Amino acid sequence: MSRSILCLSVYLIILTIAGFCSQAIAAYDYLYEEDFEDQSAQGWAPRTPLNWKIQSNPEGGYAYHQWNTTISGPNAYLNEWSIYDLKTFTNMTYAVNIRTAESLSANPVTEIGIIFCYQNENNFYYVSFSSEDNATVLLVRKNGQDIVLARTDVPVIRDYDYISVAVTVVDGVIKVSTEDYNLFHIYDNTFTSGKIGVGVADDAAYFDKVIVCKEVENTCDYYENFNDNNLNGWTALDPANWICSFKDYTYVLYLTKAPENAQSKHLGEIITLDNVDAENFTLEFDLKSILMPDTKPNADLAVVWCYLDAKNYYAAIFHRQGGETKWVRIVNDNVTTIRQCPEALLIDQEWHHVKITAQSNYYKIYFDDKLVM
Q1: What is the model's pTM?
Q2: What per-residue confidence (pLDDT) applies to 46?
Q3: What span, in angstroms and rounded, lies between the C-alpha atoms of 170 and 216?
Q4: Cα dihedral sign for 16, 19, 25, 30?
Q5: Which residue among 15, 74, 161, 243 has its CA within the 20 to 30 Å range from the CA of 227?
Q6: How many CB atoms sit inside 10 A of residue 253's CB?
């Protein structure tokens, strides 16, 4: 059995959420569906019932409507909500269409969101989708305290338009997406099941076409989100170059400086996860370059598997220039390029999601959910 080891390399990067899984995630069974066309919100429990009603939908039909535009509250993200109170969900995808009921020209700062894994009003997850740059966030409320887990600079809410948003939760893996973007992909197991809901900070909004689907449970050999702030089980060529650091609202694995006197002539620095042997595996993680192109124009990031030593391994090397991203095999320090990607993939200062699947020595490499090699 080949050892498949999570490895990172070359120049300044930060990484969060790493995992080996034995099967893909897919949605099949509807657990709950509501389009409010019967003009009823049966099972929904608003925080303030007078603020919620079934309303004629601007797009036709009916929707669940929070109409009050004078909500007062201390929270920047969530002050009014409604919870579907009849069922608790585990391992699910929760999708809903959301729409502002106000004009962004009159109210340019709008936050509309969805609640999941709800335990009570002091314990749940919440995604606040914003009309502003750098304001859409995923947070966990734990014992009444809000902790931001992830943030994106992508503005989501549009004027006079429904947006389809979704969250997938499976065994602590949380993915948040819209019809246009994959926003977040993190690991946090504070809550792994609970009720669903919708909410706002202080804005009027419509909610429609609520769907909850069953997701297939992962069988995973390893998870790491670095929230314990240590690198136990990891071995680096130069340990002085690697630390855990709190960046982008979470703990990450951080390569602190460009490597010097590299032990591998192909990759400047490598850190390996020990004691994880995997055959027919799926490996997923997020990575980010924090160097600007004019600082290190040839810098790249890599993931390594079937690692034996610094002279023998496979590597997928991701680059910011077209034609430079490649999948290589290193044997006795000699490199063979197996496949190249013509696209420029790596964007500095942005998180990217990487997935590698292996089945009977046949490999597929995905970058931001797109098959690239």
Answers
A1: 0.61
A2: 97
A3: 8
A4: negative
A5: 74
A6: 25
